[in-house]
Automatic annotation (TrEMBL):
Names of required cofactors: Mn(2+)
Primary subcellular site in the record, as a coarse category: cytoplasm
Residues the entry annotates as binding Mn(2+) 1: D281, D358, E360
CDD domains per UniProt: Peptidase_M17
Residues involved in Mn(2+) 2 binding: K276, D281, D299, E360
InterPro entries assigned to the protein according to its UniProt record, in alphabetical order: Leucine_aapep/pepB, Macro_dom-like, Peptidase_M17_C, Peptidase_M17_leu_NH2_pept, Peptidase_M17_N
Species annotation: Telmatobacter sp. DSM 110680
Location(s) in or outside the cell: Cytoplasm
Name the record gives this protein: Probable cytosol aminopeptidase
Role summary: Presumably involved in the processing and regular turnover of intracellular proteins. Catalyzes the removal of unsubstituted N-terminal amino acids from various peptides.
Family indicated by similarity: Belongs to the peptidase M17 family.
Entry GO CC: cytoplasm
Top-level taxonomic group: Bacteria
EC number: 3.4.11.1, 3.4.11.10
Length: 508
């Protein structure tokens, strides 16, 4: 999708579709309260073209609510699409991101290949806070996210993408800032979609080896340093936990290492991004039920998030060093697979009693975290589709976040105000760690049913030790079950934006 900025008068823009935003300014409550939709543009001709439908009560400007006007009077555009941001209190930059995605997804099935999206103008009398730069970035992100569809392997796949997305902004003193923000948003949206494209691949197409190849190709294109190792390196590093997961598969594992070293930066923090890359998860000997097992191709979404974040980092060039590590493997149940009751020795030297072979993500991450620490990282963040227990706790609304360091997690929570993603911090504690103490070894890979997301995090905490560390359990948000107005069902690319902003918070 080609993207561009325009500072031309809206009424004069010739396009297949001009999209403009609206919000409901009604503050009264009760059964007699009627919506009061208002367009977020100062263009009088656009306002005049939409005046009748806004006055009719037919359109309420609800969140992502759309209404289309053909041949709008006084405009050069063939169509005028109004997209709602919802009630005024919810008309945020994040709503703009979703509205841009909604406009793109509205256009796709209607064979509208050219779209002009209007940057909202938040007048002071409405009391809205929609900074032009932040809104421009969000609009670009939302447009790319909205354009992605998961139908990669349909034999008669039709091109229904939007070929051209133009952001129309009012001319003025902030044009340079809007351009910069829009360019950033395009990079971030493309990087999120890159992660989604990886997650979307079936397990027979995206093996650990192929995931390594895709990451290395991306690194070559963006200027990252990358190395991809396999079985021999795991044995050399004594990564017994990582190897134990892969030993039951015909497909060899891949240890993917990506390094971003900005010019002129030789000191300061070194950030470590560690992702779970289980390209298919049967559960191993503790095999999963057949229902919905096909979705277990998405069990590498944490690794994909790290690869997508590294792509954005390489292109946006923050002044901080970053090492990205993805531990990729298949978890399969053949005669060589590990068994419940086995004891494995991790890279750190800790011994792990295997209670359930389906608790494999924490095993690969344990060695990934230890390896990152051996490379000198000073702060760590990991991401994984780790536990169903986190989904039970938080549903599919928030992902889980855990940390051993308040300052580190505060940076991440601040990053969420920009990324718009939803994470909720859950606790850690010695009482939870007691649930994973082993009688035969140092630690068990599961701690029972209760507090399962927390005991999994405590397992990883044992390997992060005192390095400032964040664990993201994205199991509930990495796969979208139903189509939404602004995003297709399937892989979400969650955490790419938040990890990027966390990294940027450390830049000089």
């Amino acid at each position: 999708m080609q993207t561009q900025l325009s500072f031309t008068n809206l009424a004069a823009i010739e396009t297949e579709l001009l999209a403009v935003l609206a919000t409901d300014t009604q503050t009264a409550k009760g059964p007699d309260a009627k919506p009061q939709p208002v367009l977020l543009t100062s263009d009088e001709k656009v306002r005049a073209a939409a005046a009748a439908v806004l006055a009719s009560g037919e359109y309420k400007a609800g969140s992502n609510e759309t209404i289309l006007l053909h041949a709008p009077a006084g405009l050069a555009a063939k169509r005028l699409l109004i997209v709602g941001l919802g009630k005024k209190a919810k008309a945020t930059v994040h709503a703009v991101r979703n509205a841009a995605g909604t406009a793109v997804r509205y256009s796709k099935p209607r064979a509208i290949r050219e779209l002009v999206f209007t940057l909202p103008e938040a007048t002071t009398d409405l009391g809205l806070t929609l900074p032009p730069g932040a809104s421009a970035r969000a609009a670009a992100e939302g447009a790319f996210v909205g354009d992605f569809d998961p139908d990669t392997y349909r034999s008669e796949r039709k091109d229904v993408s939007v070929h051209s997305f133009t952001l129309a902004a009012r001319a003025g003193s902030e044009q340079a800032a809007i351009q910069t923000a829009f360019n950033e948003g395009s990079i971030i949206g493309e990087s999120q979609n890159f992660a989604r494209s990886l997650v979307n691949e079936p397990g027979n197409k995206l093996t650990p080896t192929v995931l390594g190849e895709r990451a290395a190709q991306m690194a070559s294109e963006t200027g990252l340093k990358a190395e991809v190792f396999s079985t021999d390196k795991l044995h050399e590093l004594k990564m017994g936990a990582f190897w134990s997961v892969s030993q039951g598969s015909e497909e060899p594992p891949a240890l993917i290492v990506m390094k971003y070293e900005p010019e002129g930066v030789t000191d300061g923090p070194v950030l470590g991004l560690v992702g779970k890359g289980i390209t298919f998860d049967t559960g191993g000997i503790s095999i999963k039920p057949a229902d919905n097992m096909e979705k277990m191709k998405y069990d590498m979404a944490g690794g994909a998030a790290m690869i997508g974040a590294m792509r954005a980092i390489a292109l946006l060039k923050p002044k901080v060093r970053v090492i990205g590590i993805v531990c990729a493997a298949e978890n399969m149940p053949d005669g060589k697979a590990q068994k419940p009751g086995d004891v494995q020795t991790a890279m750190s030297g800790k011994t792990i009693e295997i209670i359930n072979t389906d608790a494999e993500g924490r095993l690969v991450l344990a060695d990934g975290i230890t390896y990152a620490r051996s490379l000198g990282v000073t702060q760590l963040i990991d991401a994984a589709t780790l536990t169903g227990a986190c989904v039970v706790a938080l549903g599919m609304i928030n992902a889980g976040a855990f940390s051993n360091d308040d300052e580190t997690i505060e940076r991440f929570q601040t990053a969420l105000t920009t990324s718009g993603e939803k994470f909720w911090r859950l606790p850690l504690g010695d009482e939870y760690y007691d649930q994973i103490r082993s009688d035969i070894g140092d630690i068990k890979n599961t701690g029972g049913r209760w507090g399962g997301a927390i005991t999994a995090a405590e397992f990883l905490h044992a390997f992060a030790e005192d390095t400032p560390w964040i664990h993201l359990d994205i199991a509930g948000l990495a796969w979208i079950e139903d189509n939404k107005p602004f995003i297709a069902k399937g892989p979400s690319g969650v955490a790419v934006r938040s990890i990027l902003e966390w990294v940027r918070s450390y830049a000089n």
